[in-house]
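dumping these here so i dont lose them again. two proteins, back to back, each one seq then structure tokens. dont judge the mess
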Amino acid sequence: MNMLLNSVPESLIIAGTEYEIKTDFRVWLKFEILLSEGNPSFVDIEKLIFKSSLPPSCADEETTEQILWFYRCGKCGKQEQKGGTPSSKKIFDYDYDDGYICAAFMEQYHIDLNCANLHWWKFHALMLSLSENTEFVKIMGYRSVEISSKMTASQKAFYQKMKKHYKLPVKKEELQRITAIEDALITGKPIDNLL
């Protein structure tokens, strides 16, 4: 789907029936946060996304595909990070970086996200287009920079300091997993089921 040629979708077609969805960016930020917290219930996701009627449970696979299609803004597969190279390293978090994101939108677009009525796809397009002059994009750059032997000692020290200063917090579940691995290693227990 091309946003330049078509209006942004307000519904999903599932099992041949059109279902209206909530398109506000806040709903889809909540969706992403639910996913990042791990194992959200399918019912909770449907209640979050659909306006009134829910698709039939026999179409759960198609519903999931359609939800992910909308979440990815009509694209297939995983979105690539800014700059065009895929990365598994997380460089921002909607919860943790909320202030930086709000400030960047205000600075660049004069949009107050607390008052904005903005479709998810439009929010996403604006987010991807934030200027490198915004503090938020600078912070993402610090988090993602690879410190290499080609850098001078002062550059290495600067980026290490910035990485430490702007480091994303470790999620509770990840911290519990790390602790469990450490405990298993200390006590000599197998860690295969923890990896």
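---- next one ----
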Amino acid sequence: MLAMGIFLCYNKYMSEIKSIWKDIISCLQAEISSAAYEIYFMDLEPIAIDGESLVVLCQKPSKKRVIENSYAHALRTAVLDTGALIKDVKIILPEDQDKYKREEPDADDVEPKFSYIIFNKSYTFENFVVGESNRIAASAALAVSENPGQIYNPLFIYGHPGLGKTHILHAIGNELLANNPQLKVLYTTAENFTNDYTLSIAGAKNKEIVRAFKQKYRELDVLMIDDVQFFEKTEKTQEELFHIFNDLYDIGKQIILSSDRPIRNLRLLDDRLSSRFAAGITVDIAAPDLETRIAILEKKALSFHYLLPPEVAYYLANKEQNNIRVLEGMLKTVGMYAMLKQLPITLALAKEALRESEAESVEHLSVQKIISRTCQYFGITEDEIFGKRRTKKLVEPRQFAMYLITCLIPTVPLSSIGQTFGRDHTTVINARDKIAQLRNEKDERTCTIIDDLIHHILES
């Protein structure tokens, strides 16, 4: 019990730190551009409180210098706006973190951490561009957010990856909590739910673990699960979800689900669970038309503080027709390229940034070839890159492989890439964005590896 007490104290300490940082970041995002936030602040990690300062870990000296030289005032203003007891933020580098970071207790009987996903504040109904391809889904989602548990329960949304399903789920969550902050609303992915259930089984002898799992999933007003297609082949997890679904549904709680395909195509899902999913309303999101894609680009450019000429918006909208995430990624690439070169966004610059000639030369590529060449480059086997181990030796090649697939073969859905590696699409997004950010920052090692790998892939 002493170990449990120590663990809970540690957890409370870290929870307070993360809560303070979350409040600061929320205020900061109102002061700086989305692009600046994503480049300089998104990967910062709060690790300690030192006197009246929150200590935040920054991985790169160059990033630390930019923050201290260009964003110190905005950061200090954000701290004051939160009303927290701390007065400042102290940014440190990895070599200094041992001075501040507490060691997490190691005991066999301590409670594991169940995963939580915080709603993305930028994913709102106001920021969601509605067109003919998603109008019904958007209307149903808004209706649910205004009357949870009353109509459209459960709400099942399906569509190919990158069309806005996750945005809609977060928009529902943000709207629900804005209208009623007391509601217990949980958004999770099928992968995280499975991980939580596995943890609860592993610690079944510990009543605190069982209670924590039950409290997390059975005492909700609204449960949202993204990417339910990943429940296929997980019989025990499906059975637990079936019981949770029934418990919530029977007392009028709202359930919202998303998938990359319709319920009838989830062939490896238990029939009982499929019938529960189909008991409410099912809506789909299709690929947006040209006008909607242009509207999405213009809205995103506005939020990023990019001056986007119409001809560039038209060019980008024609270049990618099926995936909004890819479309947004191209816009970010063009914007970052313009910022780094200190030039306005033009059609010529956009074509240069997206390296059309490079894209044209990779039509013969396959996912398997990129993975194979990446393994050769890093000296690992394909079994290792597909495995569950998370050592740096394996995580880094995995991330580079995922990044290169999204860049060199952008038509491959993120969910398909994730399934290839035995992970979900959010893992692919994180890998892609991490490597892209390092590349945009001109990180020498990252750029060298990417150049070497592309040469190795294209020339072999």
